Amino acid sequence: MSAKKTAKASAKKKKTAAASDDTWNLRLYVVGQTAKSVAAIANLKKFCAEHLDDRYTIEIIDVAADPKIARRDEIVAIPTLVRKLPVPMRKIIGDLSNTDRVLVSFDLQPGS
Q: What is the pLDDT of residue 96?
């Protein structure tokens, strides 16, 4: 492996290690195809691609299909992102457009 490829692999490994040693389990609660729901989905996918590499799973839950799920999971606003893993569980309300806020909420370093 060339030195250039090794440096890139090392940087990518550090970036992933900063995110977590485990796979991130993320659950996004939305309602239908509203503008905020669509934006939250797009922002979440972008965030994960940029900061978590391939170490994540995303589950999108449309509470319009089953309103009881929001009550069961204690969701009080939509859209809401829940990080189930790694622990501790975290919740972020909003469309996830503020990347720095998401990074801080997940205990990651802004600019990493």
A: 97
